[in-house]
Amino acid sequence: MFPNSANSQDETRDSRHCERGEAIQRDWLGSGLPRCARDDAPFPFRFPRWLRFRGAGKDSAPIDAIAAAITCNLRGLGLHARAKKYRDGFCEIVASTSPKMITLPHNAEASGLALLLAQKYDPPTLVFEEINSLKPGLGRAMIAAAVSGLGARPGLFQRIRVNDLSRRLHDGRRWWEHVAGAYPAFEWVVTHDEDFQTHKPPAAETDEFARKRAKLQQLAGEFGYDPAKVTLSPQKRVCDYLGQSFTAEGEAFCDGRIEIYYDPAMSDARMGCCLAHEIQHARYFVVREAYIAEAEGGPLHRRFAKFTSELLAARRGVSDYSNEHWDAWRGAASPALFSMELEEGGSEPINETIAEVAKALYNWGPEVRIDPVWKELREAVDEECERLAGGG
Ligand SMILES: [Zn+2]
Q: Are the CB atoms for 96 and 110 separated by under 8 Å?
């Protein structure tokens, strides 16, 4: 991944480079959900600390108890669900069938729900922000999960608000009007404002998104990478990695797919850096797979034998970001080339350092001063990747 490092408040620091990580390694191993590098909780189910320790208790803040109940109910529907508390009595809850936490209306990939508990509103109000359902009945089930969660502290949230642009059903009334009718005990405030901000067009429909997508395709071609495998995603991807929460800028998957996460503030230059980094991961995966499948002493083993753990560990990284991976390494011995670094040491010093070499070469040009060992290793990976792709 090419991270926009961010802390738990989601601030972004754009000079650092996040990580790819869990999803890829886990796909690679064929095991289930991606996991955090430093947390035993599978990534999508990571429970916010404030809920984990206080949410379920009888003496917890009422909004915490309600958020915990709603989140629990949504997980009961098989959804990934996450609650995030803000200052002053606001809590946002997001749930989705996708670990990417997609909730956008009209999205074809995943169902989801986003809501806000606004205790500071007068009266305290549950605001439904976004809902998308690809499965008959799931929309209503998600609403039921949320509304019944309010029962954790009965009477606190009596008002429910929604800006209703939902489709009209057979009787001419909109979907939300039917839903509201099913919960007459609550005071429903239903507006129909076409310009309401939560219904602004998805990023994927804007001109800037289309321009960035075209630019990304062009860059992929320039890197000699199949543009069909590179997509610009309108989703925001948050992952926990190296003990921090990151807003990822990009991700490389073991099957060669690369996703860059759209950010209107991302310059074309930064997008190019991000793509260079992710493509290098993808090439590394190709060679790693062949290397692991090969017998001891095979041509790949012979070619890469000189890049020993001791040699690479002595060199460490080529950037702040790659050095963070060296610092975070917790394996019993130094990381080995083409090993499952994340599994063994909780970070990926070698994989990331090579990706950072690619990024530096793109960013600064071929004259950039880079440790010659890493530069040679990166070239060897690319050559072998090309050979393997050509079947030669
Ligand atoms: Zn990376």
A: yes
Kindly give the distance from the C-alpha atom of residue 80 to the centroid of ligand 1, in angstroms, as a whole number. Answer: 24
Whether 211 and 203 have beta carbons less than 8 Å apart is answered as no
> Contact 84/104 with Cβ under 8 angstroms?
no
Q: Convert the pLDDT of each residue in 144-174 to its tens digit.
A: 999 999 999 999 999 999 888 777 777 777 8
**Distance from residue 338's CA to the centre of ligand 1 (Å):** 15
* Angle in degrees, 0-180, between the axes of helices 268-293 and 372-389, rounded to the nearest 10: 70
Residues 6+ apart with CB under 8 A from 320: 16
Going from the C-alpha of 158 to that of each of 22, 31, 129, 250, 377, the distances in angstroms are 41, 43, 17, 41, 63
The CA distances from residue 293 to 101, 242, 287, 299, 309, in Å, are: 35, 29, 10, 12, 20
Mean pLDDT for the stretch of residues 82-95: 82
Nearest-angstrom CA–CA distance, 353 and 217: 25
Name the pTM for this structure.
Answer: 0.54
Ligand 1: centre distance to CA 263 (Å): 18
DSSP sequence for 322-364: HHHHHHH---SS---TTS-HHHHHSS-HHHHHHHHHHHHHHHH
CB proximity list for 237: less than 8 A, separation 6 or greater: 1, 100, 247, 248, 251, 259, 261
β partners of residue 96 = 80, 112
Residue 7 CA to ligand 1 centre (angstroms): 18
Q: 107: which residues sit within 8 A by CB, 6+ positions away?
A: 132, 202
The residue count for the chain: 392
Encoded tokens for 139: 């929309």
- Are 225 and 219 in contact by the 8 Å Cβ rule? The answer is no
Tell how far the Cα of 2 is from the centroid of ligand 1, in angstroms: 5
